[in-house]
Amino acid sequence: MKKNYVLEITLISAQGLKEPSGKLGRTQTYASAGIDSSVKLRTGVDRIGGENPTWNDKFLFKVSSDFLSSETSGILIEIFALGIIRDTLLGTVRLLVSNFLQFGSAFKAVKTPSFNAVQVRRPSGRFHGVLNVGVKVLDSADAPSMSVSAIGFRDLIRENVHPKTQYQSMKKSKSTLRISHENLLRDSNDQSNGCDTNSSSSSSATTA
Questions:
Q1: How is 10-49 classified by DSSP, letter by letter?
Q2: Tell me, what DSSP letter sits at residue 140?
Q3: Which of 10, 49, 46, 33 is nearest to 133 (CA)?
Q4: Which partner from 24, 31, 178, 199 sits 20 to 30 angstroms from 4, CA to CA?
Q5: Coil, helix or strand for 97?
Q6: What integer is the mean pLDDT of 146-166?
Q7: How far apart (Å, rounded) are the C-alpha atoms in residues 93 and 108?
Q8: Residue 119 to residue 43: CA distance in whole angstroms
Q9: Which residues contact residue 144 at a Cβ distance below 8 angstroms, ignoring those fewer than 6 apart?
Q10: CA 189 – CA 171 distance, rounded (Å)
Q11: Residue 100 pairs with which residues in a beta bridge?
Q12: Phi-psi bin for 197: left (phi > 0), alpha (psi -120 to 50), beta?
């Protein structure tokens, strides 16, 4: 029987990347990750690390037990340098999921992440630099609720927080409206009381 899991990938940093030729200024890099070409998630851009960038971005992918048990299943990670006209591919890493799972553990959640330094392959085919990555497999029951097949952890937090924020905003708006209504009634009563007082005073003065 198929069971669903969530594959958690953390792209931590890279060291010793080959910088693009003819670069102007410091190299600014980002990385993308995906289990197939149709869905790729992207880190933020590191603007200060140059050939040694740091991202610390976490991605979640919904996967099946069949995917985890296959020896050829993997995650493709690509590292790019920002360019003026187009971005430059600095290198790629293909992570085989089987390398991060203990034998026979495909149907068990790996609760502690496995951290590894993996060589980065340049477009020329040569290895240059390393990628530091963490991998963890979560049981679908223990994983955060996901409305899509893949999502960045920051986006997931934003997605989960937004409805609550919106509800609090609506609640605050209703509370403000209720207070305004109460103030309006109080002001109306005060005005009525004021009119009565003035009439009494006027009546008393006339009588006198």
A1: EEEEEES--PPTT--SS--EEEEEEEETTEEEE-PPBSS-
A2: T
A3: 10
A4: 31
A5: helix
A6: 66
A7: 25
A8: 19
A9: 6, 60, 156, 160
A10: 27
A11: none
A12: alpha
Reported as half-sphere exposure (CB side, CA atoms, 13 A), residue 134 has a value of 15
Question: Which two tokens mark 125?
Answer: 């085919």
How far is C-alpha 68 from the chain's CA centre? 23
Give the type of residue at 95.
L
Strand-strand pairing, 88-96 and 74-81 = antiparallel
What mean pLDDT, rounded, does the chain reach? 76
pTM of the predicted protein model: 0.71
| Local structure of residue 70 (DSSP, 8 states) | -
Helix (H, G, I), strand (E, B) or coil at 156: helix
Cβ neighbours of 95 (radius 10 Å)? 20
Q: What would the mean pLDDT of 149-162 be, rounded to a whole number?
A: 71
Compute the distance between CA of residue 130 and CA of residue 44 in angstroms, rounded to an integer.
18
14 near 50, Cβ under 8 Å?
A: no
* Phi and psi, residue 118, nearest 5°: -115, 140
- Residue 200: exposed, middle, or buried by beta-carbon count in 10 A (0-12, 13-18, 19+)? exposed
